[in-house]
Design brief:
The complex is a heterodimer of chains A (272) and B (288). Chain A is mainly alpha-helical. Chain A folds into 2 domains: 51 residues, no CATH class; 211 residues, Orthogonal Bundle (MetI-like fold). Chain A contains 15 helices and 1 strand. In chain A, helix 3 crosses helix 14, helix 11 packs across helix 15 and helix 13 packs antiparallel against helix 14. Chain A is globular, with a radius of gyration of 23 Å. Chain B is an all-alpha fold and 288 residues long. Chain B has a single domain, classed as MetI-like (MetI-like fold, Orthogonal Bundle). Chain B is 74% helix and 2% strand. Chain B contains 12 helices and 3 strands, in the order βαββααααααααααα. A two-stranded antiparallel ribbon of chain B has the order 2-3. In chain B, helix 3 packs parallel to helix 7. Chain B is globular and about 75 Å long. Classes of the chains: A mainly alpha (272), B mainly alpha (288). At the A-B interface, helix 1, helix 4, strand 1, helix 5 and helix 6 of A face strand 1, helix 1, helix 3, helix 4 and helix 5 of B. Strand 1 of chain A pairs parallel with strand 1 of chain B. Chain B: It is found in: Cell membrane. Chain B: One of its GO terms (biological process) is transmembrane transport. Chain B: Its main location: membrane. Chain B: Belongs to the binding-protein-dependent transport system permease family.
Chain lengths: 272, 288
């Protein structure tokens, strides 16, 4: 009975993993097929005519190298900038007292309730008025000091003993010096977790890049993949090749930093 | 203790500046806009409450709300049930827990655009893998993306596939916080595995389950990319979601005034949902 239970458990888990992995295998497989083989019956898992030509064509006919650079540049800039301002903001809320602090913190929490997509129309008009359409600014600047990041860092910092900060203050360190030399080194694990969340969100972002980036030279990978889709004909072979490239970076990061992804998910959950 | 000086205010000020510029101002601006007719380039025309009146007459608004509810009531129960089962399995004494956990989580870190295009291929009526498997079971080919019900179920499948692992990890963390002694005590009292699942696991997991439910509600009302790529909201608007409708109204039909009134409807609904959820979560906190 016990062995049967175990067997059923492994069976269900293995089946789930197969279903989970299958779309990835399909994506990779299709990226090495020509369009005729993608649309042939029965479908083949291992391509009959294995070839790299989709990848070559993607880079030859489209500014795809430039698109990869755009995605990377935006994700790296947004992540580093947001980490800095969110850690600073978290420090401000966790370790200082100032006028209306509690009310302002409540505003911060409340701002998380408004879904950013819901204000896409007026926000787009704001970007248009200040000349930010077709630039990277809308994808980096508004999220620099975001409520979630500040809240996350503030929660983490409340556990840092005040005596550490006091000691540095007696030594004559300014508040910003204390931030850089004492706080930042202590919160490194939280920075890794938050950094991964920011990078992932920026790298996979779709709605705002779609609205803002109009020139193909400026577009990020997800947007350019969408634009390959035509009204009559969609080159799925090229889209699959681009898709494979788009998922590689996060897969690699995930392999090496899995525990930070997991702690990012469970941070909010179990405390609740 | 805490120092009272300007530093705290200065350190937190980037948030206020960005919040006022990129959230408060746009929301106020769209309030004004919602009483106007405007295509984005010409003159604005004051129309009073016309946009809000149109909102109630707009079948697409209500259809998109209905669709969101349909998605919520179909994919969320299935997903959370499966996630709980997986979490219980992973919490028991099995080999390769780390591998299984990592594998089911992978879909969540993948670009939704890449995944949605892959699902288009997998769900293709004539050449898709799913219909091939179904044909082995003797089921004739289903037009997943071309029929209203098929398209809705396709979105459900994509949502479950993408969020199952994420929820499993949250529930697993919850299970791991249940002390082992409780189960040992139950075994001594002669409880079976199934009994202790329903008498111990489920009640103690209620807060965590509620938390995943809250996340799923928010996620459902924000759905955009899944639908935008996989079905485009079709066929016959059967998968249109509120945010996709908002996007179309603004960026395809250039009705910025009317789109602003939809903005307010979505914000209103989200706030109501959030308040209900906060009440639920608070009640739970009081109890525990």
């Amino acid at each position: 009975m016990k062995r049967l239970n175990k067997f059923i458990m492994y069976l269900i888990l293995t089946l789930t993993v197969i279903i989970t992995i299958l779309p990835f295998i399909w994506m990779i497989s299709a990226s090495f097929k020509d369009i005729r083989e993608i649309f042939s019956y029965p479908p083949t898992i291992i391509p009959d005519n294995f070839s790299f030509s989709n990848y070559l064509q993607l880079f030859a006919e489209y500014p795809f190298a430039r698109n990869i650079f755009n995605s990377t540049f935006i994700a790296v800039t947004a992540t580093t900038g947001s980490l800095f301002f969110c850690t600073l903001g978290g420090f401000g809320f966790a370790k200082f007292d100032f006028k209306f602090k509690n009310q302002l913190f409540l505003v911060l929490i409340a701002s998380m309730l408004i879904p950013p997509q819901s204000i896409m129309i007026p926000l787009f008009l704001v970007f248009k008025r200040i000349g930010w359409v077709n630039t990277f600014y809308p994808l980096i600047v508004p999220g620099l000091a975001n409520a979630f990041g500040i809240f996350f860092m503030r929660q983490y910092m409340t556990s840092i003993p005040d005596s550490l900060i006091e000691a540095a203050r007696i030594d004559g360190g300014s508040d910003f010096y204390i931030f850089l030399k004492i706080i930042v080194p202590i919160v490194k694990p939280a920075l890794a977790t938050l950094g991964i969340i920011f990078f992932m969100n920026s790298w996979n972002a779709f709605v705002w890049p779609l609205i803002i980036l109009q020139d193909i030279e400026l577009q990020t990978i997800p947007v350019v993949l969408t634009n390959l889709q035509g009204v009559i004909y969609t080159p799925y072979n090229l889209i699959m090749a681009g898709s494979v490239i788009s998922i590689i970076p996060l897969f690699v990061v995930f392999m090496f930093m899995q525990q930070y992804f997991i702690s990012g998910i469970t941070a909010g959950a179990v405390k609740q | 203790m805490m120092k009272k000086n300007k530093s705290g205010l200065i350190f937190t000020s980037p948030f206020y500046i960005l919040f006022l510029t990129f959230m408060v101002y746009p929301i106020l601006f769209s309030f004004y806009l919602s009483f106007n007719k405007w295509n984005g380039v010409g003159e604005m025309e004051w129309v009073g409450l016309a946009n809000y009146i149109n909102l109630f007459r707009d079948d697409l608004v209500w259809k998109s709300m209905f669709n969101a509810l349909f998605f919520f009531f179909t994919y969320v129960p299935v997903m959370l049930f499966l996630a709980l089962v997986l979490a219980v399995f992973l919490n028991s004494n099995i080999k390769g827990r780390g591998f299984f956990r990592a594998a089911v989580y992978l879909p969540n870190i993948t670009s939704l655009v890449a995944v949605a295009f892959t699902f288009q291929l997998l769900l293709d009526k004539n050449y898709g893998l799913l219909n091939m498997f179904l044909s082995y079971l003797g089921i004739s080919s289903i037009n997943w993306l071309g029929t209203p019900l098929g398209a809705r179920l396709s979105i459900d499948m994509l949502m479950i596939w993408r969020w199952l692992g994420y929820n499993t990890i949250i529930l697993l963390a919850g299970l791991q916080s249940i002390p082992e002694e409780m189960y040992e005590a139950a075994i001594i009292d002669g409880a079976s595995k199934v009994q202790s699942f329903f008498r111990i696991t489920v009640p103690l997991m209620k807060p965590v389950l509620l938390f995943t439910l809250v996340l799923s509600t928010i996620g459902t009302f924000r759905m955009f990319t899944e639908v935008f790529i996989l079905t485009g909201g079709g066929p016959a608007n059967s998968t249109l979601t509120p945010v996709v409708h908002l996007y179309n109204t603004g960026f395809n039909w250039f009705k910025f005034g009317y789109a602003s009134s939809i903005t307010y409807l979505i914000i209103l609904i989200t706030l109501i949902l959030s308040m209900v959820q906060m009440k639920l979560l608070n009640e739970k906190e009081v109890k525990s």
